[in-house]
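Entry 14. Structure prediction run on the chain below.
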Amino acid sequence: MTSSLEARLLWLMQDAGIPYPTVEHQFHEGRKWRFDFAWDEYDLAVEVEGATWMPNGRHTSGAGFRKDCEKYNQATLDGWRLLRFTSDMIDDGTAIATIKAAMRKD
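Output returned:
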């Protein structure tokens, strides 16, 4: 696990009774791309978008945003359903509610 935000979401998922995910799941053989969390049985992945409210955040810079788009588009082409959450979405319960809803659809 690479961030305290990811650790917080993992704890909240456990507390909510969500099945334990694969952490840092590598989903593409030709690239080093990883999902923060993934559930193969649901074809579901979660990405925590840290530093989105910072002016020089990795996910909000031009190059970083482009790399994220490439990764997320490939994940979709590979059949993954991808959920993305910012820190405020984790804090206000949106992330947990959305993950639960995605798991109910299967």
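The CA atoms of residues 29 and 54 lie 32 Å apart.
Filed with the rest of this week's runs.
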